[in-house]
C-alpha cells in the first residue's frame, strides 16, 4: 500500500506560480467574497490615522493588489514580501506602469470605505516596495501592522509548518502591533487552471484559534460565506482574523498538545493543534 507524502513549502515551484490563470480565476472581477474581505480590512485601516503606520507588511503578496491599496492611506511604507519570480514581475510592472483596469472596481470599493485613500489607485500604491523573500526573511518586531491573505494555509500541507509560518507572521510586528489576515476555510491542496497541484493545509476556526490565541491578544475571527462564483477549490468559505501581538509575552504554558485530525464536510482533513508561541 502506498503512502502519500505531505508536501512542504519548499516542495512547490513558487517561481512558476501561474499569475495569468490565478488573476483570471480570482481577481479579474470583484467577487462577492472580495467585497467581504475588503469591508473587513477597510474597517481596520479606517481606524488608523492617515500615515499613522510607519511600516507595514503584506506577507506573500502574490499578484493581489487590493490588500496593498487598502493600506495606502494609513501606511507610509508597505513591504510586499513575495518569493515568486512570476509574482514579483507582475507586481513591479503594476507599480511601474499603473494597475490594470480590472483593479479599478476593487479600488473604488476600497476608497468608498476609507475616505482617507487618495483619488487614484496608483497614488494609493505609492508607498509599496516590492521585497523579494520568504517568511524566513522576516525580522521580528519590524512592522506596525502585518497583513497576510490566503498564504499560510495555501503554501504547505504540513500543519506544523503552517503554525511556524503564522508564528513568524505574528512576531514580524512590534509588541502591540496589529495583525490582519484572511484564510481559505478547509481548503485542501488545489489547482489553478489545468496546472500542477499546490500544497494546502485545511484549517477551520478552532485550528486558527489554537494557533493564534496563545500568541496574540484581542483575537477576532469572522467568516465570509463560500463564494460560488469562484472555481471549486474545495473550501467552505473564508476566515478573517484580526489580533495584536501582546505587549508582554508569557512563557510557553506547557508541552505541545498532539495534533488532532478531523474530517471536514466534503471529506478534507482539518488538523487542530496547540503549539506554544516561540520566543523572539
Ligand atoms: C495563494 S497565493 C496568495 C497570494 C495573495 N496574497 C492573494 O491574496 O491572492 C500564496 C502566495 O504565497 C507565496 N508564498 C509561497 N511560499 C511562501 C513563503 N515561504 N513565504 C512567503 N510567501 C510565500 C506564493 O508565492 C503566493 O504568492
From TrEMBL:
Transmembrane segment boundaries: none
Keyword S-adenosyl-L-methionine: yes
InterPro entries per record: NNMT_TEMT_trans, SAM-dependent_MTases_sf
GO molecular function: methyltransferase activity
Superkingdom: Bacteria
Keywords: Methyltransferase, S-adenosyl-L-methionine, Transferase
Name of the protein this chain belongs to: Class I SAM-dependent methyltransferase
Signal peptide, first to last residue: none
Gene3D superfamilies: Vaccinia Virus protein VP39
Classification via SUPFAM superfamilies: S-adenosyl-L-methionine-dependent methyltransferases
Biological processes per GO annotation: methylation
Low complexity composition bias: residue spans: 255-267
Annotated region described as Disordered, given as residue ranges: 246-280
